[in-house]
Amino acid sequence: ASRLQRSDLHLRMAGLVSDAEERARHLALATVRADENVAQILEDGAAMARSRGAWESAADLLKRARALTPPGQLDAEHRRGIAAAECQVYAGERPRARQLLADILAGPLTRPLRADALRVLAEISYNDEHSVEARRLYEEALGYTDDPRRVVHIELGLSYLSGQLGDPAAGSLHATRALAQAEATGDKALLAPALALCTMFDYLCGRGVSWDKMQRSLVLEDRGAVMPLLVHPSTVNAIL
Q1: Residues 6+ apart with CB under 8 A from 104
Q2: How far apart are CA 236 and CA 201, in angstroms?
Q3: Which of 53, 102, 103, 182 satisfies CB 3.0 to 4.6 Å to 190 for a cystine?
Q4: Is 174 exposed, middle or buried (0-12, 13-18, 19+ CB in 10 A)?
Q5: pLDDT tens for residues 224-238?
Q6: Is 93's pLDDT higher than 90?
Q7: 3-state SS string over 71-118?
Q8: Which of 93, 192, 144, 176 shows the shortest CA–CA distance to 101?
Q9: CB within 8 A of 108, min separation 6: which ones?
Q10: pLDDT of residue 163
Q11: For the CA atoms of 22, 27, 28, 32, what is the dihedral angle to 10 degrees?
Q12: pTM
């Protein structure tokens, strides 16, 4: 079949299937020009893929959504690119994610999106055992945002990294900052890990175990959340 025929077939298939992720894949193969509606459908399909742990599929859909984002909508293009890189990290494709983020960071970015890109790059550096670089990137990311939710994610990263580097005092400081910001947002998904890390670092710094704090963390825990194993409240509770 010719390219045009194949594109037409995929477009027809997109109208027949009921699964959002499958529909997104057909639209991705049928669309050759920038189209925000299609890009949004691909982004929604990526969310479905993420929900079942299909990180590579999610990354592919987000990269295609980025490519189909109309010119002039740079924030949407960069946001989709950063999300794609994060999915690549979870899919075990850190070198590709690093390159994608480097390309994004090389261009103009809003402050919040630059903070997001630097945070994900810091996570890659930590997993590549470049701890000093990871700390620098996390700290640089903090300088680009005052959004409480973004600050919590960055401070949690710094807290976890400090713990792995054997610096409980720094870990406690960052965990406390994360908790303060999480309390301000009222977001349970952010409160649970912040409480857990505060409890762990209280213990590591010789202040004993606050079981009330630990119990509150367990009540708020989302066991399906994607985060390092040693940040999950249930893991921290088991260790303590």
Answers
A1: 78, 81, 82, 85, 117
A2: 10
A3: 182
A4: buried
A5: 888 888 899 999 999
A6: yes
A7: CCCHHHHHHHHHHHHHHHHHCCCHHHHHHHHHHHHCCCCCHHHHHHHH
A8: 93
A9: 74
A10: 92
A11: 170
A12: 0.90
